[in-house]
């Protein structure tokens, strides 16, 4: 048993017999949910904010409009960038059989988003109630067709590669050459490249690009401007960051986060209207 597993807390959920248990919670800036695990598969979605999920296998950055799939028993932490409005579904294991048995970031369609919000409003969903059973079936059907998004930084185990990862992660915006960073970490770039390919299926240069993109996303989640986020993440120009963001998420950072703010405000208005009925 790993040290992380020993240190992690088992987060027991009420409603153990129900098909889906939900959690609705708002978190402050930089809040960290410490090491824990569940006996259910978990879909974590935020109607507002950016989350970073970490496991022994890697790091996933989850902007709004995306969710993170965390299978049962995987020890993880979640860190909030900016205020986060989190909506979580806990599914009985193997209900969503088509999703992988490892963490991944997935696209959340408009329909799936509404299903998540509806499920969270209900609290728990049981197959014993016909309407709730229909809702469970539709959620599972939607999960069968979701697409994964490559917003992941795989971990490494080789000590030399770990030192490179630590150096890059400590200052994502640093523009030192990879050759210099590798050499100061105890190996040539050629050796580090071979290790990264074997352990992550990525070049160290690609890993660094992914780190910078994900770091910039977290800064945007904290409310920083695009120009500042690009500079802090080490991009030569804001246009380079915008191009990388568009390639990954299909739109510009400004439009993406404006949509997030508009949808979050609309969700609040809808919730208030429902409570006033």
TrEMBL record:
Keywords: DNA-binding, Transcription, Transcription regulation
Entries under Gene3D superfamilies matching the protein: Homeodomain-like, Jelly Rolls
Alphabetical list of Pfam families matching this protein: AraC_binding, HTH_18
Alphabetical list of PROSITE patterns matching this protein: HTH_ARAC_FAMILY_1, HTH_ARAC_FAMILY_2
Domain of life: Bacteria
Start and end residues of each HTH araC/xylS-type domain: 162-259
Record's keyword annotation contains Aminoacyl-tRNA synthetase: no
SMART domains from the UniProt entry: HTH_ARAC (SM00342)
InterPro entries: AraC-bd, Homeodomain-like_sf, HTH_AraC, HTH_AraC-typ_CS, RmlC-like_jellyroll, RmlC_Cupin_sf
PANTHER family: HTH-TYPE TRANSCRIPTIONAL REGULATOR NIMR (PTHR11019)
Annotated protein name in UniProt: Helix-turn-helix transcriptional regulator
């Amino acid at each position: 048993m790993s040290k992380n597993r020993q240190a992690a807390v088992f987060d027991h959920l009420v409603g153990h017999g129900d098909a889906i248990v939900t959690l609705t919670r708002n978190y402050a800036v930089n809040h960290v949910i410490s090491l824990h695990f569940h006996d259910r598969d978990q879909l974590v979605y935020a109607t507002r904010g950016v989350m970073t999920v970490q496991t022994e296998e890697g790091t996933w950055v989850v902007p709004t409009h995306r969710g993170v799939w965390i299978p049962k028993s995987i020890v993880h932490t979640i860190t909030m960038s900016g205020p986060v409005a989190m909506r979580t579904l806990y599914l009985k294991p193997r209900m969503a059989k088509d999703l992988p048995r490892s963490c991944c970031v997935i696209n959340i369609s408009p329909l799936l988003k509404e299903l998540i919000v509806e499920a969270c409003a209900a609290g728990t969903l049981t197959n014993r109630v016909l309407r709730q059973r229909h809702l469970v079936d539709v959620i599972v059907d939607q999960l069968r067709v979701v697409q994964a998004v490559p917003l992941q930084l795989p971990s490494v185990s080789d000590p030399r590669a770990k030192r490179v990862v630590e150096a890059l992660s400590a200052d994502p915006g640093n523009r030192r050459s990879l050759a210099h960073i590798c050499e100061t970490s105890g190996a040539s770039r050629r050796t580090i490249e071979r290790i990264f390919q074997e352990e992550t299926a990525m070049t160290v240069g690609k890993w660094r690009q992914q780190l910078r993109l994900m770091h910039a996303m977290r800064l945007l989640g904290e409310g920083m401007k695009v120009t500042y986020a690009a500079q802090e993440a080490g991009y030569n120009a804001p246009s380079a960051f915008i191009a990388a963001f568009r390639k990954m998420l299909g739109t510009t950072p400004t439009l993406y986060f404006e949509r997030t703010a508009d949808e979050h405000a609309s969700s609040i208005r809808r919730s208030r209207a429902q409570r006033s009925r």
